[in-house]
Amino acid sequence: MPLSDPTDYQHGAAAQTAILLVNLGTPDAPTSSALRRYLGEFLSDPRVVEIPKPVWWLILNGIVLPIRSSKSAAKYASVWTDRGSPLQVGTADLTQAVAAEMARAGHHVLVRYAMRYGNPSVASVLDELARQNVTRILLVPLYPQYCAATTASTLDAVSAWMRRSRRLPELRVLNHFHDVPVYIEALADKIETQWRQQGRPDRLVMSFHGMPARTLKLGDPYYCECHKTGRLLAERLGLGASDYVVTFQSRFGKQEWLQPYTEPTLRKLAQDGVARVDVVCPGFTVDCLETLEEIAMEGKQAFLSSGGKVFHYIDCLNADAHWAQGFSKLLTTHLQGWDTMAPTDPGALAATRALAQAMGADNLG
Ligand SMILES: C=CC1=C(C)c2cc3[nH]c(cc4nc(cc5[nH]c(cc1n2)c(C)c5CCC(=O)O)C(CCC(=O)O)=C4C)c(C)c3C=C
Ligand SMILES: [Fe+2]
Ligand SMILES: [Fe+2]
């Protein structure tokens, strides 16, 4: 297709759409030095630790990083796989599964993932998408429940990249999917599959990542969205109020976090004579340290050592086929109007690039 208008380079036939999945991030290796870099970046984010900078800088560098880096490295080593950190592997697999579903449905979209902390960074992936002439991005933080520490922080990273970029893409954001039927259905399907083989537990524990309790009073919807996911899942599974409990794990620091806490709840259930619990983590799309080590290892130990008899951890959805299909359908509804069914014409792209180059454009990437 001959092009005469150089602005087509920016707006026309060569426009590309991308889906960018963003997860939290994970260390590059299960070592103290890698943990120091990762935790240093993560815990310096003012969305995560809301303590005035100079005070927190001293505590972080003087106490937290020296102690926590080696302790956490040992925990990561206990879940590390041949392919790397479980969070990385699961996120990469989910990305590939969504890309395959999109292609199968005839959509011409790039599907990539980035990590909020560590690698591949949000900025590096956005740079790569810009080089590929992507002008429309559906941003998908991989957290079912909205939280300032995760969802808003992901947007901070994207807006930091935008602040230094000339040519901004159109941006849509999937803020949360805590109550979306395909999500609840995929979770219920996973749980029921396990129950068909192992029978039902005496109690289903739904453990979500915790947050400082004050964030609820400050207006963060996270706590309420966790409870809504819990209620919808329980309704879908036909559970009564006494058949399940919503708890919060991974407390960090000395202040009060959202309650009830997961591990004390597991101990209490065992002491009260509950013989079998199953634990599911519907706040995590992909298995990670917090599910595989903190729940499936430490939580199990806490329950069994307090008198409990049987403990089952139910894996996250990860890249399960049923979930990847449902999730892709959900993402497709957010692509409406972006005409992703029309293939990008590589000849047109090359022609517009050549034209822009001839005019001295320096933004070709
Ligand atoms: C799912 C939502 C998450 C929220 C909300 C969240 C808040 C939050 N987390 C910390 C501190 C840590 N979290 C750590 C690991 C971690 N956290 C999440 C998710 C949420 N965090 C995930 C998916 C992971 C696992 C990453 C992996 O590599 O597998 C860690 C690191 C591990 C450790 O040293 O214990 C810390 C630290 C705070 C302070 C916070 C909110 C204020
Ligand atoms: Fe966390
Ligand atoms: Fe943890």
TrEMBL record:
InterPro entries: Ferrochelatase, Ferrochelatase_AS, Ferrochelatase_C, Ferrochelatase_N. One of its GO terms (cellular component) is cytoplasm. Gene3D superfamilies: 3.40.50.1400. It is found in: Cytoplasm. Its EC number is 4.98.1.1. SUPFAM superfamilies: Chelatase (SSF53800). It catalyses: heme b + 2 H(+) = protoporphyrin IX + Fe(2+); Fe-coproporphyrin III + 2 H(+) = coproporphyrin III + Fe(2+). Fe(2+) binds at H209, E290. Coiled coil: none annotated. Pathway: Porphyrin-containing compound metabolism; protoheme biosynthesis; protoheme from protoporphyrin-IX: step 1/1. This is Ferrochelatase. The lineage of its organism: Bacteria, Pseudomonadati, Pseudomonadota, Betaproteobacteria, Burkholderiales.
